[in-house]
Amino acid sequence: MTAATVTEPAVELTGITKRFPGVVANSDIHLRVAKGHIHALVGENGAGKSTLMKILYGMQRPDEGEIRVNGSPVGFHTPADAISAGIGMVHQHFMLADNLTVLENVVLGSEPRRGGLALDFAAARKKIKEISDAYGLGVRPDVPVEDLGVGDRQRVEILKVLYRGARILILDEPTAVLVPHEVDELFDNLRGLVREGLTILFISHKLDEVLRVADEITVIRRGTTVATVNPKDVTSRKLAELMVGSELPSPETRESTVTDVVALSVRDLTVRTGDGRPVVENVSFDIHKGEVLGIAGVEGNGQAELVEAIMGMRPCEAGALTLGGADISHWSTLRRRAGGIGYIPEDRHRHGLLLESPLWENRILGHQTRRPNVKGPWIDRAGARADTRRIVEEYDVRTPGIDVDAATLSGGNQQKLIVGREMSGDPVLLIASHPTRGVDIGAQAAIWDHLRTARAAGLAVLLISADLDELIGLSDTLKVILRGRIVADVDPANVTPEQLGSAMTGAGEETV
Ligand SMILES: Nc1ncnc2c1ncn2[C@@H]1O[C@H](COP(=O)(O)OP(=O)(O)OP(=O)(O)O)[C@@H](O)[C@H]1O
Ligand SMILES: [Mg+2]
């Protein structure tokens, strides 16, 4: 070995073990990350990826093992320690404060002070702009975070980390919510960062992306590192085998189960923001029993508002909604749910789970008026508990039990719990936003199977997904949304992800 072939490690983890009650999350982990590399971590849901990264970021203390950063042993007690060692982390679930602006969020905890007193927002704004421009992040400092979609929130999180001077960046599933061209943009950003000498640790379930962007890939299986490979030497199939030992699934589904009975009818729906700007404009469609209607669009084009209007979480200014023939336009969210709408929300932490409550209480959430959660006027604990066990079993939620808090589940296992809950009680209509976001490929195939079976039994599904293979593979009907309007109908049997991607950006569209 010559000196030239030795790349100095930015991070070395040796013999890391971390136990939680009932679970060994990390067990004798060995990981070496070369400086200036993009190093990917892959593994099935609950394998221990996020835990390991939280250890490196000072959020968790390992029970055993050694951490070295740039050659020196470190013992972080808090993220502040990790940050001062130049490590930054963007979490699987964003942690921005909704009620603050981008600028406020970025400076939160590291406020620039002028003369030691007042916050120097002008300097902060300038620095944010510089970083944003340098890496093409397109971050606008004065926008309230609550007005941002998940794609923009993520860029803010990355900028926040860079703002604190991170040289080692941890990104936990940064692409889960991005559509293909946004992924390309992010990868360009990441390549720019490593060219500047930064080191990136990157977690993803999208193996083709991992192969595209990573310099090295480490596979974690059941808490331990089982292999580190060069992407040039493996295929995604091989990686999947290393992870879970199963074949890559395919979402193909062509036998139509569409009936001519309309389940949901949306007519001329318009939704406006507080300042009167239309975010959904004159949208009309029907979803039939047994039909999956997919909506393709770049995040932020009105999908979230459309879903929230159908769920009754956001007032619609004009238009009519009928469910099984009943006008539901003025129904409360709870009544719509009780009327048979299942809802897999875009943001599972803000709308899907009570993190500090046990799994069985989360089973009741949003379903508190229906069996098996109630008997007469009372909450039926036994019924809810038994049904939570069924969901854990049927949806393969990896957990030591139903009494642990939802916060202790890995991201993908939280998602499986939500999908299982929302598929319970034979919904008439399922509104599914990114239903397999963050789940590993084996669990993804299982969720697709559950959806197909329910569809064959008459379930109508409104599907929103950034995963174009999933959209194309599952949808019977596919529409493209752009700036709040439905701009195209696409035949899912004949469209490629590339064609769909360009329809989503309005390529070839007349725009006014
Ligand atoms: N705070 C905690 N308390 C108890 N158990 C935990 C805690 N955090 C994680 N775990 C458990 O540790 C294991 C590893 O979880 P982790 O979040 O690291 O998985 P992951 O590889 O990131 O999975 P995913 O792909 O689903 O995000 C899981 O069994 C999880 O339930
Ligand atoms: Mg995780």
In terms of topology, how is this protein built?
Layout: E1 9-20, E2 23-34, E3 38-42, H1 49-56, E4 64-69, E5 72-74, H2 79-84, E6 87-90, H3 102-107, E7 113-114, E8 118-119, H4 121-134, H5 150-163, E9 168-172, H6 180-195, E10 199-203, H7 207-213, E11 216-221, E12 224-229, H8 236-244, E13 262-272, E14 278-288, E15 292-296, H9 303-311, E16 318-323, E17 326-327, H10 333-338, E18 341-344, H11 348-352, H12 359-364, E19 374-375, E20 378-379, H13 381-394, H14 411-422, E21 429-433, H15 441-456, E22 460-464, H16 468-474, E23 477-482, E24 485-490, H17 497-504
Parallel strand pairs: 3-10, 3-11, 6-9, 9-10, 15-22, 15-23, 18-21, 21-22
Antiparallel strand pairs: 1-2, 1-4, 4-5, 7-8, 11-12, 13-14, 13-16, 16-17, 19-20, 23-24
Helix pairs in contact: 13-14
The structure holds adenosine-5'-triphosphate and magnesium ion.
Magnesium ion (MG) binds at residues 49-50, 92, 172, 410-411.
Keywords: ATP-binding, Cell membrane, Membrane, Nucleotide-binding, Repeat, Translocase, Transport
InterPro entries: AAA+_ATPase, ABC_carbohydrate_import_ATPase, ABC_transporter-like_ATP-bd, ABC_transporter-like_CS, P-loop_NTPase
Domain ABC transporter: 11-247, 264-508
If you had to describe this structure to a student in words, what would you say it looks like?
- With 512 residues, the protein is of the alpha/beta class.
- It folds into three domains: 242 residues, P-loop containing nucleotide triphosphate hydrolases (Rossmann fold, 3-Layer(aba) Sandwich), CATH 3.40.50; 178 residues, P-loop containing nucleotide triphosphate hydrolases (Rossmann fold); 75 residues, no CATH class.
- The protein contains 17 helices and 24 strands.
- It has a six-stranded mixed sheet, with helices on both faces. Strands 18-21-22-15-23-24 form a six-stranded mixed sheet, with helices on both faces. Strands 2-1-4-5 form a four-stranded antiparallel sheet, with helices on one face.
- Strand 16 and strand 17 form a beta hairpin.
- It is globular and about 65 Å long.
- The N terminus is likely disordered.
- It binds adenosine-5'-triphosphate and magnesium ion (MG).
- Magnesium ion binds next to helix 1.
